[in-house]
Specification:
Length: about 350
């Protein structure tokens, strides 16, 4: 019996590489040509060390800008350069129609169940964590965003809940707290920074921020998700840079060599330390794009696309600028830390 049947990626055998090289790759190349000024895979630090870290499978944890293209292009780049095609976590809130779920699960995507009650959410987290562990134990690579949903303001902070989900089995096994970091190291988390010169969904994100400000109970509809997916795929992005960073296992070893007592901290505190390490990797890996005076014209053009009742132009303009400033601010601050 397949205990992961409800969430796992579908088995495809020889169909997957056939679809990659004859269908998906040409489509991704066409999208790159039509919607970007080029997509580049870079490295933060020693390239040989990073290549050694990912050689036998890794857990690629990234910041999140676009629903579809973030994972699609990273998978394409890793496949072309290293013949690595990670399994990809996709929230079930994006399955507006059954055909979408069928299609993505045939393309190495597994289901992240959301929008459930507290008890069901806990069981879903355990189930998903077990599946991810199963993949890693078999040497498979995985992609997952550092948070549930995209950071609308581009202030990319790893949600502790993601690491709690990944390690939820630890406490269930009644293992001593001193073994927690070793449990995490088995995942081989390799953070990845992704940077878009222009975010095609920026005006949609700003719109959501005002709608939530004006009505805290406002929620996106499935139609909104479809619009975001379509806009992210078709919209102009300028230069796109993915930057691989070393495994956090090195940071864990260095941290424990300096502060061995960290092993005895409560799990919550250990997770907070891990989130900080992951954040610094992502922040340092950002590509910082120059912004000239023409950028003000760009912001005004995006503002003009927003059509909602009680449109607050001052608020929306501030949020649009904020999206592009936060990566610069976080990158600059990250250089002050020796992580």
């Amino acid at each position: 019996m397949d205990k992961f049947r409800d969430i796992r990626a579908y088995r495809t055998g020889w169909i997957l590489p056939f679809c990659d090289f004859l269908i998906q790759f040409p489509i991704l190349k066409l999208l790159a040509w039509r919607t970007t000024d080029g997509i580049r895979l870079g490295y933060l630090g020693d390239r040989k060390q990073i290549e050694a870290d990912i050689k036998h499978g890794a857990f690629f944890l990234t910041n999140h800008r676009d629903i579809v293209m973030d994972s699609a292009w990273l998978s394409y780049l890793l496949r072309c350069r290293y013949f690595i095609r990670p399994f990809i976590g996709i929230g079930n809130n994006l399955f507006a129609v059954k055909l979408i779920e069928w299609f993505v699960r045939f393309n190495r995507c597994f289901v992240v169940k959301r929008n459930a009650g507290a008890h069901a959410q806990l069981e879903n987290a355990r189930h998903l964590s077990a599946y991810i562990r199963h993949l890693r134990e078999n040497g498979k690579s995985i992609w997952l965003a550092q948070r549930e949903g995209r950071a609308k303001d581009s202030n990319d902070l790893t949600q502790p809940g993601v690491l709690h989900m990944l390690t939820i089995d630890f406490e269930q096994q009644n293992r001593p707290v001193e073994e927690f970091f070793d449990f995490v190291k088995a995942l081989n988390i390799c953070p990845v920074s992704l940077s878009y010169e222009y975010d095609p969904c920026d005006y949609l994100k700003a719109t959501e921020m005002q709608l939530k400000r004006d009505n805290p109970r406002w929620r996106k509809s499935k139609r909104d998700d479809v619009i975001s997916m379509r806009t992210g795929i078709r919209g102009w992005k300028g230069h796109v840079v993915y930057r691989l960073t070393p495994s956090i296992n090195h940071d864990i070893d260095e941290m424990l060599a300096k502060f061995p007592y960290y092993k005895g901290l409560p799990i919550k505190d250990q997770i907070d330390h891990l989130c900080f390490i992951i954040d610094q990797h992502i922040f340092k890996g950002y590509e910082i794009f120059p912004r000239g005076t023409e950028f003000d014209t760009y912001i005004e053009s995006r503002l003009a696309l927003i059509d909602i009742p009680n449109k607050d132009e001052a608020f929306l303009r501030e949020k649009l600028y904020e999206m592009y400033k936060f990566p610069e601010i976080n990158h600059r601050k990250s250089l002050e830390f020796n992580v």
